[in-house]
């Protein structure tokens, strides 16, 4: 419990917590108004049924005298107006409360989802290598609402119900201490036992439900994501069956959960009836007179009538909170990791703050230098890069070659700064890239092996992640021309506005690759990094693009990972990588040689 509260408090800022406190206060006022409304009906009905009861009620009598009513009927009309006004005010308040509650709750849900998305998108690349995107999607879309509704809102409702129960308990214990004490112990004990028996099961179900909902998204993602391969292989059935299996697990969990939600009601009814009967027997055995017994009976029956739904709700809410508990753990773990990382990052940037700002417009002059760099992927024992030292002078074009799995992509990812070396240093113009990561990455145009295209226009795919109102069409056309795609785009009826389809399905493999190249060139980067970017192209197109890239050689530093010798024939330096190590360096131009 303490741990749960600590984690919840961590998830929200001080301002957000205050907003929740406001909701809680408003819930209590709503409960008081609800009770007041019901409470006022009883004396009103009493006066209607029997006007002489007016003189028995001190409060009513003083109101009667204060306003100097002439007859009971006048007083009745007045009471009816008061009662109606209380109900109108109460309902206006409740409407207002519902509005504030949905405003705060939905806003909080929104804020937490955005915070989580931001945290995922800014996490190190290694985080994404280890986590399945289906689970991240589930956390943002399903787990956040589970925390907001299943924990926060349920928590407030639980507190309100406990408050009501406490009030009724105080009332009962002052009127009939012994029967109340005995019945409370019996009832409380059995509720405690019931909870103890099912506590672990509910928590386990909550955890399982979390895993299952992630798996369900995963199977849909995989099935729809590889629809072509699946069609060709004809194994649609496997994916449908795998989804069905998870979906059935989900149904079983929900069936269990619903049973556990419903069963307290039946369990409590039996318990309350036994307690009332037991209490009556105690009262009778205590030898009190019959009229006293009848009024006690009425009191206990009324209390039971009010307590029953409250207790049922308390148990259902406690179960719900337990079921949804794993969602808090997941968000907490993902966000606390982010906070620590964020703290390190902000410390680093403040340390180098002056340098970072001062060099925003800097142009690299010397080169990139790797000093004894080693790297291992998380949870791996083998090093993917071992003790690599090399220099890349600015303005040179460099090729990385080597067998499949040699470590070329890993080495380039280290230079890009998306992976961090376990040991060694990567310097650009004698400064570690860690200390200038934002500036460094802004200077790079990167073309990966597989280009991710969004279901958007060619314009937005080339100027990827740029606000549409800031996109410069001249630059888009310029980069399309450099990527040898201008003619094709000009031939399309929609030109730059043409949509490429999900993951670019409306384009050929080569066209997709060239959009990727245009994207990397859009910002006119100083450094161009190509990871087998032309491997999907036919020889002729590749030659054409490489010619265009060669044309950029004067102004850019170019890093290319390539398999085909034709791709690298014009490079100044060739680094051969083998089993994570630098096996050979070939310097083809005098310039490159002297610069190293
Ligand atoms: N996310 C990862 N987790 C664990 N090991 C990885 C991961 N990515 C790559 N590796 C391993 O690191 C080594 C180097 O991989 P890398 O992708 O850098 O090779 P490569 O030379 O680019 O190969 P290719 O030419 O086939 O693309 C390989 O042994 C690979 O299995």
From TrEMBL:
Q: How does it sit in the membrane?
A: Multi-pass membrane protein
| SUPFAM superfamilies for the chain | ABC transporter transmembrane region, P-loop containing nucleoside triphosphate hydrolases
Matching Pfam families: ABC_membrane, ABC_tran
- Drop me one GO molecular function for this one: ATPase-coupled lipid transmembrane transporter activity
Enumerate the subcellular locations listed in this protein's record, separating them with semicolons.
Cell membrane
Extract one GO cellular component term from the record: plasma membrane
Q: Which UniProt keywords apply?
A: ATP-binding, Cell membrane, Hydrolase, Membrane, Nucleotide-binding, Protease, Thiol protease, Transmembrane, Transmembrane helix, Transport
User: Domain of life, per the record?
Assistant: Bacteria
Task: Answer yes or no on keyword Cell wall biogenesis/degradation.
Answer: no
* InterPro entries per record: AAA+_ATPase, ABC1_TM_dom, ABC1_TM_sf, ABC_transporter-like_ATP-bd, ABC_transporter-like_CS, P-loop_NTPase, Type_1_exporter
Q: Per its UniProt record, what PROSITE patterns does this chain match?
A: ABC_TM1F, ABC_TRANSPORTER_1, ABC_TRANSPORTER_2
* Residue span(s) of domain ABC transporter: 368-595
TM ranges are: 20-45, 75-96, 147-175, 181-198, 266-285, 291-308
Residue span(s) of domain ABC transmembrane type-1: 21-321
Q: What is this protein called?
A: ABC transporter ATP-binding protein/permease
**From which organism does this entry originate?**
Perspicuibacillus lycopersici
């Amino acid at each position: 419990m303490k741990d749960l509260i600590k984690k919840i408090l961590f998830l929200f800022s001080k301002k957000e917590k205050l907003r929740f406190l406001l909701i809680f206060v408003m819930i209590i006022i709503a409960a008081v108004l609800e009770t007041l409304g019901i409470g006022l009906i009883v004396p009103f009905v009493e006066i209607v049924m029997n006007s002489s009861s007016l003189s028995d009620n001190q409060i009513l009598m003083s109101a009667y005298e204060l306003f100097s009513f002439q007859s009971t009927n006048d007083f009745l009309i007045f009471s009816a107006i008061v009662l109606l006004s209380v109900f109108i005010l109460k309902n206006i308040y409740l409407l207002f409360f519902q509005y504030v509650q949905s405003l705060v709750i939905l806003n909080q849900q929104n804020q937490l989802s955005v915070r989580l998305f931001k945290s995922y998108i800014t996490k190190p690349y290694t985080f994404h290598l280890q986590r399945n995107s289906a689970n991240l999607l589930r956390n943002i879309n399903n787990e956040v609402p589970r925390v907001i509704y299943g924990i926060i809102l349920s928590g407030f409702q639980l507190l309100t119900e406990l408050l009501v129960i406490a009030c009724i308990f105080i009332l009962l214990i002052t009127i009939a201490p012994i029967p109340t004490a005995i019945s409370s112990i019996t009832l409380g004990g059995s509720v405690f036992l019931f909870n103890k028996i099912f506590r672990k099961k509910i928590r386990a179900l909550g955890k399982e439900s979390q895993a299952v909902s992630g798996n369900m998204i995963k199977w849909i993602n995989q099935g729809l994501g590889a629809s072509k391969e699946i069609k060709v292989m004809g194994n649609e059935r496997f994916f449908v069956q795998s989804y069905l299996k998870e979906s059935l697990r989900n149904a079983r969990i929900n069936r269990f959960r619903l049973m556990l939600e419903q069963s307290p009601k039946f369990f409590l009814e039996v318990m309350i009836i036994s307690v009332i009967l037991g209490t009556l027997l105690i009262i009778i055995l205590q030898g009190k007179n019959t009229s006293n017994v009848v009024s006690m009976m009425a009191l206990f029956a009324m209390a039971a009538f009010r307590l029953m739904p409250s207790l049922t709700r308390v148990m259902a809410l406690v179960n719900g909170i337990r079921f949804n508990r794993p969602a808090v753990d997941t968000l907490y773990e993902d966000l606390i990791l982010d906070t620590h990382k964020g703290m390190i990052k902000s410390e680093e940037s403040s340390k180098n703050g002056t340098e970072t700002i001062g060099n925003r417009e800097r142009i690299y002059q010397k080169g990139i230098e790797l000093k004894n760099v080693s790297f291992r992927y998380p949870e791996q024992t083998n090093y993917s890069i071992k003790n690599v030292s090399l220099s890349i002078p600015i303005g040179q074009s460099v090729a990385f070659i080597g067998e499949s799995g040699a470590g070329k992509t890993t080495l380039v990812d280290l230079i890009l700064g998306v992976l961090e070396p376990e040991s060694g240093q990567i310097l650009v113009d004698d400064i570690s890239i860690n200390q200038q990561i934002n500036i460094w990455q802004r200077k790079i145009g990167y073309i990966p092996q597989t280009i991710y295209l969004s279901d958007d226009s060619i314009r937005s795919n080339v100027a990827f992640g740029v606000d549409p109102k800031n996109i410069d069409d001249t630059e888009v056309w310029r980069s399309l021309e450099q990527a040898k795609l201008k003619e094709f785009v000009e031939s399309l009826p929609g030109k730059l506005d043409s949509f490429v389809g999900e993951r670019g399905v409306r384009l050929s493999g080569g066209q997709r690759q060239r959009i990727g190249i245009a994207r990397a060139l859009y910002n006119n980067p100083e450094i161009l990094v190509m990871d087998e970017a032309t491997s999907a192209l036919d020889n002729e197109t590749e030659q054409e693009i490489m010619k265009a890239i060669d044309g950029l050689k004067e102004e850019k530093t170019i890093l290319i990972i390539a398999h085909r010798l034709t791709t690298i024939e014009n490079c100044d330096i060739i680094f051969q990588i083998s089993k994570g190590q630098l096996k050979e360096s070939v310097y083809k131009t005098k310039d490159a040689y002297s610069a190293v």
